[in-house]
Amino acid sequence: MWDDIADAAANCAEGSYVKVQGQVSKYQGKFQITLTKMRLAAANEVDPADYLPATRFDVEEMWAELRGYVSAFANADLKRLVFGFLDDEQIAAAYKTAPAAKMLHHAWLGGLLEHVLTLVRVCRATAPFYPEVDAELLVTGAILHDIGKIRELSWKNSFSYTLEGQMIGHISIAQGMLLEKVRELEPFPTKLRVLVEHMILSHHGKYEFGSPKLPMTPEAVLLNVLDDLEAKMQAMRNEFARSEANGKGPGEMTEWVRSLERPVLDSQAYLKDE
Amino acid sequence: MWDDIADAAANCAEGSYVKVQGQVSKYQGKFQITLTKMRLAAANEVDPADYLPATRFDVEEMWAELRGYVSAFANADLKRLVFGFLDDEQIAAAYKTAPAAKMLHHAWLGGLLEHVLTLVRVCRATAPFYPEVDAELLVTGAILHDIGKIRELSWKNSFSYTLEGQMIGHISIAQGMLLEKVRELEPFPTKLRVLVEHMILSHHGKYEFGSPKLPMTPEAVLLNVLDDLEAKMQAMRNEFARSEANGKGPGEMTEWVRSLERPVLDSQAYLKDE
Amino acid sequence: MWDDIADAAANCAEGSYVKVQGQVSKYQGKFQITLTKMRLAAANEVDPADYLPATRFDVEEMWAELRGYVSAFANADLKRLVFGFLDDEQIAAAYKTAPAAKMLHHAWLGGLLEHVLTLVRVCRATAPFYPEVDAELLVTGAILHDIGKIRELSWKNSFSYTLEGQMIGHISIAQGMLLEKVRELEPFPTKLRVLVEHMILSHHGKYEFGSPKLPMTPEAVLLNVLDDLEAKMQAMRNEFARSEANGKGPGEMTEWVRSLERPVLDSQAYLKDE
Amino acid sequence: MWDDIADAAANCAEGSYVKVQGQVSKYQGKFQITLTKMRLAAANEVDPADYLPATRFDVEEMWAELRGYVSAFANADLKRLVFGFLDDEQIAAAYKTAPAAKMLHHAWLGGLLEHVLTLVRVCRATAPFYPEVDAELLVTGAILHDIGKIRELSWKNSFSYTLEGQMIGHISIAQGMLLEKVRELEPFPTKLRVLVEHMILSHHGKYEFGSPKLPMTPEAVLLNVLDDLEAKMQAMRNEFARSEANGKGPGEMTEWVRSLERPVLDSQAYLKDE
Amino acid sequence: MWDDIADAAANCAEGSYVKVQGQVSKYQGKFQITLTKMRLAAANEVDPADYLPATRFDVEEMWAELRGYVSAFANADLKRLVFGFLDDEQIAAAYKTAPAAKMLHHAWLGGLLEHVLTLVRVCRATAPFYPEVDAELLVTGAILHDIGKIRELSWKNSFSYTLEGQMIGHISIAQGMLLEKVRELEPFPTKLRVLVEHMILSHHGKYEFGSPKLPMTPEAVLLNVLDDLEAKMQAMRNEFARSEANGKGPGEMTEWVRSLERPVLDSQAYLKDE
Amino acid sequence: MWDDIADAAANCAEGSYVKVQGQVSKYQGKFQITLTKMRLAAANEVDPADYLPATRFDVEEMWAELRGYVSAFANADLKRLVFGFLDDEQIAAAYKTAPAAKMLHHAWLGGLLEHVLTLVRVCRATAPFYPEVDAELLVTGAILHDIGKIRELSWKNSFSYTLEGQMIGHISIAQGMLLEKVRELEPFPTKLRVLVEHMILSHHGKYEFGSPKLPMTPEAVLLNVLDDLEAKMQAMRNEFARSEANGKGPGEMTEWVRSLERPVLDSQAYLKDE
User: In this complex, do A28 and D1 lie within 8 Å of one another by their Cβ atoms?
Assistant: First the structure.
């Protein structure tokens, strides 16, 4: 690396895009690049979406499926409420691109929508076994529980937290968004508002995970359990892929996974492994 | 209470059945019984099942439904394994009457079967959303995870723990039963045995709940989450009933529920309450 | 107790007021009352305030002192914000009578105002030693942090939680009240809103105490510490009084205090005790 | 390092043995080796035991001492049971070479036997002070408690966990081995089986350490306490040696020891240090 | 109970001794006493030792055995130190009668000495297996670790805590006693003082049990483990006796033991039970 | 680095001072020094104070202010006690230079005095709001609570723990110093001694922070809360400075702060930031 490149490097910060020129060579069996030129890329030279991981599903298809479930709601107030969000262009645009996290599960563009859609499907499949559960109320909670993430996270050039995200958090941001939307829809039944608000506040399931309230209704309990399940299953899926990428065989345990506090095993790969 | 009754009472212990004779009167607005005769009931005078709470579902129907799911298994080894238990007359007889707990959720005759059947249904409904999950392996885990309870609990005249139950626990009892059954079925694939054994050992999900291993496969994670969900939903159901029995109105929170460390609210009753 | 009294008693519930007639006598060295008549009291026969504990300070004097501090604010936005609450007649009426808790510290009418006023005084005395702290921002936090209690608690005939209080909690209720008030005052500086919102959300200081965020600014840290101090000092004061009422000598430790997880000692009484 | 060496290196994996040729030189005060040739070693060129740390005691002497204690048992059933394991050639061969851990205390060939023998000696010395303790039952527990480690660990070229070890764990593996051995010895007294099984299951002493049961008999309590003591004393011994090897003086505290969450001090070296 | 007796009762407090006269009769199968006279007993009418539980061992024999171990010390400084305490008449008198606790293990007159003596015996039996341990230093720690209890507890008419006991605690009281004794014995080796002081401060083994330091020397670790063992074994012994007194059979588990957070089983009684 | 420099380096240890000669050059945009000579510095060539961070306040002024507060004490015994420490030349010399910690808050020469002085000021400002608090007793606690740090820490060439500091800790060291000083001042009121001793022992506020007693008097509670506050505010101050030094903008959150388990925000810089 020559001094002028060092100078160029000094102008970079986390999230900068650069143009480089150099030569590829092989050293001790590994490829390496020797840079000869480097400069900051102009804004019109890059599309950040090319550099950030993105969902492998079709966003508009997912969006349509989600809206379809709401359209079929029998409860007019819940339908009004959810569409109050989904029909809001600014919210919809963010909802369709936001990641679901900075680093853990679903940390990619469209990850929030992908996470919510799977969650909604599982909620719909599970609710019928529990007569105490109002399936539409549950699906409402599933669609709105993480909506604060569109203001908690920033996904311009890289995934990071906004200052409001760190100081307020997506749970309380979502609660504020709900109260505002409810005001726009007045008159709106207080009881429904309280039940939806409670699902948002309690969806992390434990105080130590940042929920100011524990789930106290059948819908809040189910939402918390299935949301947690979704996150765990996606985390395992990520680990299986990473383990394979690191050269582990299909029948081997992964390395220790910090977020799960354990290693995991891809049971189907293990069964198929000879 | 006269002295001869006191003498009779001295012969009673927890779980004794007695015959009494007396007079009903009203005192300060409440009914009371004044006993005039009392003696221990002979064994042929009572059917304990009359005095212990029992499932409100038809045991044989539940049993048939459960067997039906196993009959449809594509995996011959898992089918052999589960029927190895269900076809064992002694195990089947106990499985059909055992409660699922001494005091908490499903603490009634047939409670174990009722709990397992609901769990199996939810497992079957949920598995398709997770391609990492082998549904038959999961259902096998759901059917066998609590089978140690038929030796951990005693439900003769009252619900209690056996000494082996307290010293070994249903998780390790079930593990022993599995190993024994696997030996009878040899040759049996080691990998399948390890995966089923792991589901049994890890189904409580946390060390502090008595699981010696954390769930490390997709099936084990899902089984733990859905088993825990089943217990929580049943606990809420019980609390709603108790709260109503205690005279609370439909729109009121229940009292503090110790097992859940919170009060709960029957959201549907609350919504309907005027 | 005669049957007709039993009937009358059957009409009572927690929080009912009754008129009784009876005779006082002495039995085994203790006074007792034998009731001869009892009926529910009419609403115009009782003033609940006669039966609920109340602050020993003058409410209007406290209120005036509190307003005086705000009047002196140099920051016009914070002044607008706080008076937005204090000038709201409905809020003011509730703020002046609400207790600060159902059972623990300051559980009496006017307790919320009394608690807040002492806290404000200590905040004002402490802030000058910490140049990182904006005293007016801190006092704003002190005045608003518990304002959600006016909807979390009910103090009509007895002190209890409202359903919204249990399901949402005073922290999130206060956050909602803040956002609504800020909207009425628009344009209002976003940064100030975020800092005040953060103080409200974090004032319990720990996730396990129901705060969805930990204190992350100097003002939020100081508010949490001094609020906690106020509660502890008031709890000790209550215990010293209770201990004396129970016949303990001035130099003795109190009994174990559950909320503090320790017994306490009135050091000044202990030093004066001969 | 030249490219052909890089190629050779690419064929290596963790636990591979290689033959190398090179030149020793001195650079900046430290010795270094410049490799000129490198290839994988053939299996018959290496004896893994030369490369793995091993106990400094004579394995056969330790084995004989252990058997001697069992030979002296008055309880014929316990004697049958323990010899059922020690006389099993496959088990004996593994028991004599297995390490007691992958990384912590006694992580060397023969470490399991060394750990167990010391534990048995301390058990025998301690039991007489506690009349509630059956010394032979205790020694049985000491000999069998960790026997699952011969399947939980692998010590071929390096120390690692087997897949079964990670998924089932040595506690449950040992329980399975016990039940199998008991079946071979039938009739065997159920009560003795339950008590030994309980010692195995509870020997980690706490749920969070992976024991599915807490110690509930005098022997189980004593075994857990002395097993834990053994591990702690060996850990301190290791740290004293490492600290000295790192150039610390005899009177100095060691660095922070992660497994013990504290630094430690070799008190005797400290006292002798001038 | 007549009024004059009520008056007499009003003069009693916890720990008072009374003289009563009355008639024994039988009511509903149980004996009861009807009091006719009652008065406070004069000091010379009662010997408190008749009413407090006491050790079943001979105090002077225990004392002599303990002194014998110290007499044999090779380390003159430790010998001087321990006899500095044991030869102090005031300390010796208290040491021989003090209980070891208010309510838990060894809560009887002479309990402290009994506890210490057993602990010393086990220390002496165990130390030889750990070459890192200085047996005399360990025994010194065993004799002095709980000496602060002679000022922490009061055992005049009943067992209770002194105010100094609650405010300072036996660990810090003992530390103060050690420093004072060391000053009387100056010159005394600083290193020995630090090691003994450390054993006293760390003997509870964990911060949450009130030790301001964790055990960091081999002697401190061993003392903590064996002290804890002694307490657990004595607690089990107490529970076995209580369980038998409550009519449980020899082969039954005891009730839940709060201090141990589990029920326990007298394994020897269980084995002998037919 | 040449070999002779490597030899010189071999003679260095943590805290050594060296004289070096070399050439400054620029490489890849960063300055670097190429050493040509290096030797250990002689003791008279260096003043360690030049190399250790030091308070930015005037030590003698701080000392005079502190003494001034004590001079004004009305309680003659507390005045005697505190001056017993402050007039002790050896203690005073250490008190004026000691850091308050090895690495965390106030880790600089004079840091202990600076920390104590701020704490005393806040104590004096806060005490008047709590009539249960004896302000002079509180200030006595504030001045003496950390005095054990002059023996727990060493600040010769670098900041480190003494062996006594690690084995006994500043809390117990301070308690020993108090008891010794009290003996010199006999007769001294026992009650005052117990109250001061209690403040020292309990000032960390929780068992897990190394306090063997929880605060049980109003002064002990207040001292613990304000001491903790002082540490937190100083920690935030340090983080704001570090964050700015690392190039973060004034309106940005700091990085995650390990000791506080959160990032923090300089609210005033954030408000001023455009």
Answer: yes
ipTM over 0.85: yes
Q: Do E252 and B7 touch (CB under 8 A)?
A: no
Return the closest-CA partner of residue D230 out of D127, D154, D142, D136: D142
Q: Output DSSP code: residue D54.
A: B
Contacts of E35 in chain C (CB under 8 A): none
Rounded Cα–Cα distance for residues B219 and B225 (Å): 10
d(Cα C154, Cα C160) in Å, to the nearest integer?
Answer: 5
What pLDDT digit, counting tens, does each position of C220-233 carry?
Answer: 999 999 999 999 99
Backbone torsions φ then ψ of C37, nearest 5 degrees: -140, 150
CA–CA distance, D194 with D202 (Å, rounded to integer)? 12
Residues D89-107 have pLDDT tens digits of 999 999 999 999 888 778 8
Contact E101, E165 (CB under 8 A): no
Q: Which residue has the tokens 């490799």?
A: D35
What is the token pair recorded at C33?
């009352």
Say which of A175, A176, A207 has its CB closest to residue C207: A207
Residue in this structure with the two tokens 């036997």, named with its chain if needed: D113
**Whether the bond into F189 is cis, omega within 30 of 0:** no
In chain C, whose CA is at the least distance from the CA of F189?
C271
- Angstroms from D99 CA to nearest CA on chain B: 21
- Residue D14 predicted with pLDDT over 90: no
Residue type, B46: V
> Residue E28 — pLDDT band, cuts 50, 70, 90?
low
State residue E29's pLDDT score. Answer: 66
CB contact under 8 A, B251 and C10: no
Q: Are D164 and D151 in contact (CB under 8 A)?
A: yes
Q: Which residues pair with B160 in a beta bridge?
A: B154
SS3 D97: helix
From chain B, the residues in CB contact with D191 under 8 A are none
Is A touching D (3+ C-beta pairs, cut-off 8 A)?
A: yes
DSSP for residue F49: G
Range list of β-strands (E), chain D: 18-27, 30-40, 153-154, 160-161
CA gap C99, C114 in Å, rounded: 9
Which amino acid does the sequence have at D6? A
Task: Check residue D24 and report its DSSP letter.
Answer: E
Report residue D3's pLDDT band, with 50, 70 and 90 as the boundaries: low
Q: Give the residue among F246, E163, E231, F263 at the shortest CA–CA distance from A162.
A: F263
| DSSP SS3 for B91 | helix
**Residue A101 near residue A111 (C-beta atoms within 8 A):** yes
Chain F: residue nearest E197 by CA?
A: F168
CA-nearest residue to F210 within chain E is: E212
Assess whether pLDDT exceeds 60 at residue A168: yes
Contact flag C168-A213 (C-beta cutoff 8 Å): yes
User: At F186, which amino acid appears?
Assistant: E
Top-confidence residue, E222 or A5 = E222
Region of D166 (left: φ > 0; alpha: ψ -120 to 50; beta: rest) is: alpha
Give the per-residue pLDDT at C29.
Answer: 66
C214 vs C205: CA distance, rounded Å: 6
Q: Give the residue from D137, D59, D52 showing the smallest Cα distance to D96.
A: D59
Among F163, F180, F201, the residue with its CB nearest the CB of E168 is F201
Smallest Cα distance from E174 to chain F, Å: 11
Residue C194 is given by DSSP the state H
CA dist C215 and F189 (Å) reads 42
Distance CA B238, CA B115 (A): 14
Q: Which H or E run contains C89?
A: helix C89-97
**How far apart are the C-alpha atoms of F256 and D26, rounded to whole Å?**
43
Residues E104, E259 contacting (CB under 8 angstroms): yes
C87: Cβ contacts below 8 Å, ≥ 6 apart: none
